[in-house]
Amino acid sequence: MSDIVVFANTAITIVGVVVLILKAKVTPAIALVLGALYLGLVSGLGPERTLTSITTGFGDLMAEVGLLIAFGVLLGSLMTSLGAIEKLVAVLVRTFGPRALPYTFSGTIGTVLQSIFADVLLVITAPLASRLSRQIGPYGVARMCAAMALGIEVGLVFVLPGVGAVALAGVMNLSFGTMFVFGTVTALFTIVTTLALFTALAKRGLWKPALDETDETPVAAMDDDTKDTEDTAAKEISEAAAERERTFPPLWLSMAPLALALLLIAFGAIAEMVGFSSPVVDLLGNPVVALLIGLIGAFVVARRTLPAERSAGAVKRGFQESGQILILTGVGGSLAQTVKDVGLGELLKGYFSTSTFLPLLLVWLVAAVLHIAIGSVVLASITAAGVLGPVMPLLGIDPVFVALAAGAGSLFVIHATSNTFWLLQTLLPQTTRGALKSVTLTVSCASVIAMIPIQLMALVF
Asked: Model pTM?
């Protein structure tokens, strides 16, 4: 079969999946399976090998990431039931001050809190961000809206155990420790740099409170009045935390299971990178075991400090939330395996040089186009990684940078087809016009900015 036919069939598969989701309203999981089935049959694999590719891809990926996703979502659900987030924000304000809150808030959401399912995390943290946005100085609403969008979306695709990052690591058959280290570095650089850029643009006329906020907010210089609002913000947060302290366990106890899990993952990643290995380190540093330890700890804390029905309800919600993620991730693996089996990687090898720039840019571009069409960050990223991932090792590119490039591209142009866009618009004090700036424009800038550390690390490592 000629190269052109294979390329054309792959392109038709991607377009067909998009059309099925957008026009025929077929659920993404079914659309991806149909796409894999079409590609295998028209590319000469035959019925038996095509079905083998689909089932093997699904099974192998679930074996790799299934428990990690389930444990991460369950841990996040229990953390939510323990009321840890509001108290964590209070600590951030007391430690760094209200003026730095957008950076600390976004960085925390994008890293530490990624075990919590994205929509749940958004619903929980948005009221806090909304209340604080008018009390942290000039352009507080703009900064907190952008901080929320960046923390939710950037963390989702770059930082373990965010479901997007987990899915990408599974599709690319990556070491979770490697993904954890490089993804965290990319996320923090992207969040801080993009938020600083957005703040500068907002102060230079990009953000117009009368049009971009639901209620007009006076913009004043940093004078005594602004200082008073900062003091008021810190006081209100402390009072709210004190109220929750009376009904929930203390912050250190609520956060201890998650902190322990993240420390074990980080320790395992560092040990792997420096070449240190032992049975105990390999066991405890494994992300699945680390999250299981954290999950058991969170369950014990919840059972001892909360009513039994509340802790049981948190576990039930976690199982419900993880189901759809597991299925979508698994069928993404089916498509990836089919693409690999039809030999697309070998064909594309001859069309690129050993330079890392253009291949990673292609991965970014495919993910960006898919996201604009479909509106799903996770689906766009794992589809792009699944289609192009098998090619990149042949070019000498580490798969971790392919995963990160796919994640970066999937952030481009979050718009009206995204459920997250409307949640951010309705739960925060911004109009649709404002959301187009704080969400669509800002996260699109993050999509581009993220490629800077990704390309640099790809050249060095």
From this structure: 0.75
Indicate the DSSP class of residue 286: S
Answer yes or no: is pLDDT of 217 > 60.
no
> What number of other Cβ atoms are within 10 A of residue 202's Cβ?
24
How far does Cα 77 stand from its chain's mean position? Answer: 16
Give the highest mean pLDDT range of 267-276, 299-308, 387-396.
299-308
| Beta bridge partners of residue 213, listed in sequence order | 430
Nearest to 378 by CA among 329, 313, 311, 449: 329
Structure tokens at 229: 């609002």
DSSP symbols for 161-179: TSHHHHHHHHHTT--HHHH
C-alpha span between 446 and 426 (Å, rounded): 22
Question: For residue 93, what are the contacts with CB-CB under 8 A and spacing of at least 6?
Answer: 101, 132, 233, 234, 237, 238
Query: Is residue 298 within 8 Å of residue 78, measured between CB atoms?
Result: yes
Provide, for the chain, the percentages of residues in helix, strand and coil under a 3-state DSSP scheme, each rounded to the nearest 5. Answer: 80, 0, 20
Q: Single out the residue of 67, 399, 78 nearest to residue 254, CA to CA.
A: 78
> Per-residue pLDDT averaged across 330-354, rounded?
68
Identify the CA nearest to 239 among candidates 94, 440, 398, 423: 94
In the DSSP assignment, the letter for residue 264 is H
Instruction: Give which of 268, 56, 289, 291 is closest to 173, Cα–Cα.
Output: 56
pLDDT: is 120 or 213 the higher one? 213
Measured CA to CA, the distance from residue 394 to residue 398 in angstroms comes to 10
In the chain, the percentage of residues whose pLDDT exceeds 90 is 25
Residue 58, H or E segment = helix 46-81
Range with lowest mean pLDDT among 99-103, 138-142, 211-215, 235-239: 235-239
CB proximity list for 231: less than 8 A, separation 6 or greater: none
Separation of alpha carbons 210 and 218, rounded Å: 9
Cis peptide before 161 (omega within 30 of 0): yes
- Gap between the Cα atoms of 77 and 95, Å rounded: 26
Pick the closest to residue 79 from 321, 303, 298, 296 (CA basis): 298
Pairwise CA distance, residues 262 & 259, whole Å: 5
Per the CB < 8 A criterion, the answer to whether 196 and 445 are in contact is: no
